[in-house]
Amino acid sequence: QVHVVESGGGLVQPGGSLRLSCATSGFTFSDFNIYWYRQTPGKERELVASISTAGRRIKYAASVKGRFTIARENAKNAAYLQMNHLTPEDTAVYYCHAVQEYYSDNILKYWGQGTQVTVSS
């Protein structure tokens, strides 16, 4: 069975840091692009960062560029999001999304259940 499990969220003060992890199993992780999304009630889901299958193509939302770093370790079937200089605007549920890199109509897509990040003084 497929598993995508985020961890590392919690309560942190403004200016603090958190490192989120996305642990996966049940599929060929190295064939999947990874996207970190975040969502707050009443707001649109936002794509925070993405990383390609081998980690050579990385993109960040303007709102987090320079503060967040996305990474992956294919040998561990895991991806990460290092978040520094956090602000209350970063408060959200963060989701790991794995998307198969395959040019067809039926590519595989898997979501984790999310991890809560709360930035508050």
How is the secondary structure organized here?
Layout: E1 3-7, E2 10-12, E3 18-25, E4 32-39, E5 46-51, E6 58-60, E7 68-73, E8 78-83, E9 92-100, E10 109-111, E11 115-119
Structural overview:
The chain is mainly beta and 121 residues long. Helices cover 0% and strands 51% of the residues. It contains no helices and eleven strands. It has strands at 3-7, 10-12, 18-25, 32-39, 46-51, 58-60, 68-73, 78-83, 92-100, 109-111, 115-119. Strands 2, 4, 5, 6, 9, 10 and 11 form a seven-stranded mixed sheet that branches. Strands 1-3-8-7 form a four-stranded antiparallel sheet, with no helix packed on it. A hairpin with an 8-residue loop joins β9 and β10 (109-111). The relative contact order is 0.32. The model has no long low-confidence stretch (mean pLDDT 97).
Which runs of at least 5 residues are low in confidence (pLDDT < 50)?
none
How many strands? Answer: 11
- The radius of gyration is 14 Å
* Biggest sheet features: 7 strands, mixed
> Which range does the strand content fall in?
over 45%
Order of helices and strands: EEEEEEEEEEE
| Helix-strand makeup class | mainly beta
Mean pLDDT level: 97
Please report the number of helical segments. 0
Overall 3D geometry? globular
- Determine the N-to-C terminus distance: 40 Å
Helix content: under 10%
Describe the structure concisely.
This protein has 121 residues and is mainly β.
Which terms summarize this structure?
121 residues; mainly beta; four-stranded antiparallel sheet; 11 strands; 0% helix
